[in-house]
Design a protein that fits this description.
The complex is a heterodimer of chains A (131) and B (147). With 131 residues, chain A is mainly beta. Chain A has a domain of 85 residues: Immunoglobulin-like (Sandwich), CATH 2.60.40. Chain A has no helices and 10 strands. In chain B, the strands form 2 sheets. In chain B, strands 1-2-8-7 form a 4-stranded antiparallel beta sheet, with no helix packed on it. Classes of the chains: A mainly beta (131), B mainly beta (147).
């Protein structure tokens, strides 16, 4: 079987339905979301983003992932030819699962943000001793 | 048009860079118009000028360095690679799947002969950056006029 070829997908700008507090183009990262027995997992493509550029916020069941563009690598360059633009990343998710907010962890590796959102332990069944 | 340099205003710098890239969108490149065949290909490329070099950038997040290949053949740059799809364990299920996976291969013609020894490729934070220097023979030089 021939290997699947990666198709180019245009970057999706964030619709300006909310006021942005930063400049210029903002894009929605492509994400995978999956569920394991213990956690909800999220992987987002955020090329060029380092740990310090990220902001992750969860409140009232809404998860917000934002990352700011790092300009460092563009110093001294002059664009000659271009097929994509660069910008900040921003995306919001409403979470159905009850997440244990204290235990959320995040890693960034080669431009991919991976978020582990552990589910809250269900109320323990308590055995009541009968006297 | 000028080279991108930092000012004291990060807010303004982002706009400045984006506008400069915007102007280069759809511009034929040094006489090579790569559209429409080039523009629909993965990965999308940006080409910058830096002193005596060309800097080519591509966003290819989540690849292993070993799975990326950069080659120069005559005056063509070849990029190839693959991104493996993650396999989920038992009891796991996808809710949403947008990140693509598979293989890619892309070649493009360079506007000058490249000094292979000075070519450098780097993969950092999901961005592949290739710095190509002109071969000595391709560099402009001032010819002394005698007589």
């Amino acid at each position: 079987m021939a290997a699947k070829e990666i198709e180019k997908v245009e970057k999706r700008p964030v619709e300006k339905t909310e006021e942005m507090t930063w400049a210029g183009n903002t894009y929605q990262p492509d994400v995978d979301i999956w569920e394991t027995p213990e956690a909800l997992m999220l992987a987002a493509d955020v090329p060029g983003v380092r740990k310090d550029d990220l902001e992750i916020d969860l409140r009232d069941g809404v998860l917000t992932v934002s990352a700011s563009l790092s300009l460092k690598d563009y110093e001294g360059l002059r664009p000659l030819y271009s097929e994509y633009n660069v910008g900040n990343f921003h995306r919001r998710f409403t979470l159905g699962e009850t997440i244990d907010q204290e235990k959320i962890s995040a890693t960034v590796d080669n431009g991919v943000l991976t978020l582990t959102l552990p589910k809250r332990e269900k109320a323990m069944t308590r055995r009541i001793a009968i006297a | 048009m000028s080279f991108f340099h930092f000012s004291n205003d990060a807010f303004e710098d982002v706009l400045k860079l984006q506008r400069a890239i915007d102007r280069a969108l759809g511009r034929p490149f040094l006489g090579h118009d790569w559209s429409p065949s080039g523009r629909g290909l993965f990965p999308a490329l940006n080409v910058f000028e830096a002193d005596d070099a060309l800097v080519v950038k591509a966003e290819v997040p989540g690849m292993a360095k070993e799975d990326l290949q950069v080659e120069i053949e005559d005056n063509r740059l070849l990029l190839a690679g693959k991104r493996e799809a993650a396999s989920l364990g038992e009891g796991c299920a996808y809710h949403r799947r947008e990140r693509n996976s598979g293989e890619f291969r892309r070649a493009f013609r360079l506007p000058f002969e490249v000094d292979r020894e000075k070519t450098a490729a780097k993969y950092q934070d999901g961005i592949l950056t290739i710095r190509l220097e002109k071969a000595e023979a391709a560099k402009p030089r001032q010819i002394q006029i005698v007589g």
